[in-house]
């Protein structure tokens, strides 16, 4: 199957996870950086999920699954180890809703890639279910290549872009200035903690391109 890659804005939208075990825990971890309204349907939870519920990060419905649990949900995760329950979830899912079955049987509208977050930088890896082991291996490699310093790097690039677009009028000069901000020295300066040098570099760009 050829999946279409996309980054979704699910802030303040209802997401339903049916199941309270290890798989459900993984799904919640992936969802927590968003502002989605996360509902968990399960008679019991892992300790981690219970902590999330107690702290108000998720809404726990301590019960067995019922079809009306899916009302208004944009994403639905069938994360149980019971095929009959997963089938019932699929049957209750409307065509406009997006369903992911952990058992990969029946209807699977989307899958979750491995994700590396560094501030606004989001890297995803997927083998479309062919080799989860390779996906994990590639994720580890990317985590090492793109370490935590990239969070402040991306933040600085965003700051640069805003200043360049606001202060440089010529379109060609804007493109040249934006390209200059990608010089490897910028990341090296930030990694070394020399933010003043980065700001001085930006100011020189703004002055040169005006």
Low-confidence stretches: none
Please give the alpha-carbon distance between the first and last residues.
Answer: 50 Å
**Average pLDDT:** 95
Strand order of the largest sheet: 3-2-1-4-5
Name the overall outline: elongated
Structural class by helix and strand composition:
alpha/beta
Tally of contiguous helical segments: 8
Compute the CA-based radius of gyration: 22 Å
Q: Please give the share of residues in helix.
A: 40-55%
What is the β-strand count?
Answer: 7
The major sheet is characterized as: 5 strands, parallel
The string of secondary-structure elements, in order, is EHEHEEHEEEHHHHH
- In what range is the share of β-strand residues? 15-25%
How is this structure best described in words?
Helix 1 (22-31) links the parallel strand 1 and strand 2. Helices cover 45% and strands 16% of the residues. The protein is an alpha/beta fold and 210 residues long. The radius of gyration is 22 Å and the shape is elongated. It has a five-stranded parallel β-sheet, sandwiched between helices. The protein has a two-stranded antiparallel sheet with strand order 6-7. Helix 5 (149-167) crosses helix 7 (184-191) and helix 5 packs parallel to helix 8.
